[in-house]
Amino acid sequence: MKGNPEERAVALGEYVAATGATVRRAAQKFGISKSTVHKDLTQRLKRLNRSLYEDVQAVLLKNKLERHIRGGRATQLKYHPEAK
């Protein structure tokens, strides 16, 4: 989803708030880079929709706090695929 950055930021914010998606997953879903997603969610959205911005920040913080668990699980599955 290219196009108007303001519309994209709001669409990304709604998607992340509704699904709890990570920045990587949102980037993949919208076909844009992770850095663009991050900029849209942390800078543009703050100016455009403050309440949505706060909801998204809560999701991003939750994902940040859980990332070591996801990384450890990915490593475990890489070396021990039978551990599913």
Description:
The chain is mainly alpha-helical and 84 residues long. It contains four helices and no strands. The chain has helices at residues 5-19, 23-30, 34-48, 50-79. The mean pLDDT is 93.
Layout of SSEs?
Elements: H1 5-19, H2 23-30, H3 34-48, H4 50-79
Helix pairs in contact: 1-3, 1-4, 2-3, 3-4
Task: Output mean pLDDT.
Answer: 93
Separate helix tally: 4
Distance between the amino and carboxyl termini:
34 Å
Which stretches are low in confidence, meaning pLDDT under 50 for 5 or more residues running? none
Oligomer: single chain
Largest sheet: none
What structural category arises from helix and sheet content?
Answer: mainly alpha
The portion of residues forming beta strands comes to: under 5%
Query: How many strands appear in the DSSP assignment?
Result: 0
Binned, the helix content reads: over 70%
- Integer-rounded radius of gyration: 15 Å
Order of helices and strands: HHHH
Shape, principal axes of CA atoms: elongated
Compact summary:
It contains 4 helices and no strands. By secondary structure, the protein is mainly alpha-helical. The radius of gyration is 15 Å and the shape is elongated.
Highlighted features:
single chain; 0% strand; elongated
